[in-house]
Amino acid sequence: MNLRIKHVKKAINVIFAMLFIFTIFNFISTDIMLHIGNAVEHKLGVHSNIDVEKVRSFFTTISSGILGSAIVAMIFYINEYNSEKREKILKIARENNKLQKIYREIPFIEHEGEYYKLEQLYYFEYLDNKSKRKFNESIDNVAHNLPKKMKREIREFNNKIRRIELFDHRNELKEVLENYPEIRKRRFSDDVIGVEQSLKDIIVKYDIYIDKMMETIKTLKRYDYEELKLCVEEYKCVFNFTKAKKRKILKYFNPEIKEIQEIYPFALNEKVSSEIIANRIYTIHKRFVEKIDAHMQQIEDIDNYENRKQAFSLFLLFQKEIYGTGEKVISEIEIQYAYNKLNMCVDNLQWILFGELTNRYEYRSQGYYIRKGESVEYGSTTKMIEMAGHTAYGDIYRK
Q: Are 372 and 389 in contact (CB under 8 A)?
């Protein structure tokens, strides 16, 4: 695109130069031309009988010819530039959409509030007990394989180092689920599911969340960001946004809305261009995967119980970067939802970039990125929803 821009700029320079020459020789009077011609001849020490009108005709003909050719060339180069510009924007959009598709696979789990804190403590207690059980089994196996003479002594020693499993948080959570069926009903599809099964399902849910998050992170780390980087670096624009265009964008992307500050953080008096928007798309993607890389270096084996606990805490940190939460009241019923704010950001930036092709802008709000978390019932994943909010909750008779 740089070559196209250079060609356009050269054509514009030639147009202005030829227009200036054509204007001068077309409108200058014969007397002034004679005066200038005589002065030039005197300076050079020569004398000629050149007809000044023929000189005028010569320069106007040549300059008008070059001017016309330069205008045609400029139109040709602009068309080539616009064609390449469209191609580059679509390439950026394709790469951006690929990453958005991966982000949609990132799981969401409810974690705020006293009840969910208790669930997490129960899960960590479960992992600790699992680790203790494995340790106890290993020392029992050692004792089992020893000669009979040593078994009694070793078993006595094992009893001293044996790790005791704890069930404090399990009992506390069980009591909550038994005494508050409305919590169980909200947490699961109905309160028919027994408490013991609910406790098992909670463990399965957390295991699925960690495994799926780890799988998605591996996919993101394998993704070739160089392709998106190359597309963005190759994309060049000639002009910054005009004030009129920035006003039009700000009309849709109101800076008073908190979420928009993360999407389009530019004021009316700031220099902004579609090139800056394209770079912002890449920068947000890159910052996210760099944050993952920075934190995940300490996680070596997800099957290790301590690593699994640490990974869960990190995944909640990543989830905060990806998801936002909101509330919507429909028919006097308050509905809480999660939306993918990472996709919301890069997708809206893409719409601003598309404005270079369509001269139209559109802001997509939280409703387009709603996602409900996964639930586990009887050991199987259920209640997985991801769709536009107007599809899930909109009036079917809307205009």
A: no
The sign of the dihedral angle between the CA atoms of 387, 390, 394, 397 is negative
Report the C-alpha gap between 376 and 188 in whole angstroms.
8
Q: Tens digit of pLDDT for each residue in 251-306?
A: 999 878 878 888 998 988 999 999 999 999 999 999 999 999 888 887 777 777 78
Structure tokens at 44: 């050079």
Q: Measured between alpha carbons, how far apart are the two ends of the chain, in Å?
A: 42
Report the alpha-carbon distance of residue 149 to residue 141 in Å, rounded.
16
Mean pLDDT score across all residues of the chain: 81
φ, ψ of residue 282 in degrees (nearest 5): -65, -40
Per-residue pLDDT tens over the stretch 361-389: 989 988 888 876 555 555 455 444 444 44
Q: Kindly state the helix (H) or strand (E) to which residue 328 belongs, with its residue range.
A: strand 323-330
Sheet holding 385-387, edge to edge: 323-330, 333-340, 370-372, 385-387
d(CA 328, CA 28): 73
pTM score of the predicted model: 0.75
What's the rounded Cα separation, in Å, for the pair 373 and 109? 6
Residue 31 to residues 42, 45, 51, 53, 282: CA-CA distances in angstroms?
16, 21, 12, 11, 63
Contact 337, 325 (CB under 8 A): yes
Concatenated DSSP letters of 166-198 = --HHHHHHHHHHHH-HHHHHHHSS-TTS-HHHH
Give me the residues paired with residue 298 across strands: none
> Do the bridges between strand 375-377 and strand 380-382 make them parallel or antiparallel, or are there none, so unpaired?
antiparallel
User: Amino acid identity, residue 187?
Assistant: R
Question: What is the token pair recorded at 284?
Answer: 């947000």
Answer whether 327's CB lies under 8 Å from 336's CB: yes
Tokens read off for 102: 């991966």
* Burial group, residue 290, by CB count within 10 angstroms (0-12, 13-18, 19+): exposed
3-state secondary structure at position 382: strand
Q: Are the C-beta atoms of 232 and 281 separated by less than 8 Å?
A: yes
What residue has token string 């265009």?
245
Q: What pairs with residue 337 in β-bridges?
A: 326
Q: Which residues pair with 338 in a beta bridge?
A: 325, 371
> Could you tell me which residues come within 8 angstroms of residue 168 by beta carbon, excluding any fewer than 6 positions away?
125
